[in-house]
Amino acid sequence: MKVAALQMVSSPSVDANLQAARALLTQAAEQGAELAVLPEYFCLLGQRDTDKLAVQEAPGHGPIQDHLAACARELGLWIVGGTLPLSTAQADRVTNSSLVWSPAGDWVSRYDKIHLFCFDNGRERYDESRVLEAGRQPACFDLPSRDGHTWRIGLSVCYDLRFPELYRAYARDGAHLMLVPSAFTYTTGEAHWSLLLRARAVENLAFVVAPAQGGVHENGRHTWGHSLVVDPWGEVLAEQAQGPGVVLAELDWATLQRCRAQLPALSHRVL
User: InterPro entries given for it (predicted)?
Assistant: First the structure.
């Protein structure tokens, strides 16, 4: 199954970001991708954390959701919409939600980011809990691929990557592929991004697809990028360092099964 991790350098303009996402999705479809995954905050990287509140949507409909549903339908793609802000019962809180659309344009799954990023090294300060409401539940979906296999896919977002228990839960649930749309800072990405992604792939004997924000944004933030695809043995199949682009890779079902047969670690779990 051919997959595409879409790397962006999103701006404070939702309209501009949707146009950029559409161009990358079109490119992915033209190159034969069956599944395309956008990065975290693909629709908005604003000047302030609270900018998310102004573009929040009710679950199910809104300009951002409608745009991605139309893209999925028109391009014949499975699309994972990175993340977008969905309304909650609190006016000053939104969820950071990863939504999935089928090639028919149907909304098939939702995952709300569980772990909220907090970082302060004296120069950079982030605290997502000021605006975001944390999710509570993991979420998987099944993708019947043109390769004849049904891929079970686990959803996660960015900072979740540091909590291996989430990915082990997906492995217990039979996941073959795990998605990690992200907006890692340059500082944390340079130190830990590839290391953590490869670890999640190896310990769960699963493919990992991680699209990212990658570049210098209008708000001055510098994201690490390095969108990549990792196989169950920890090998990086495709990667792009910085700037917008489509990172394509073939996920081979036989490779997945061979790795799990040669090293049956998942059957040796005691916890």
Answer: C-N_Hydrolase, C-N_Hydrolase_sf, Nit1/2_C-N_Hydrolase, UPF0012_CS
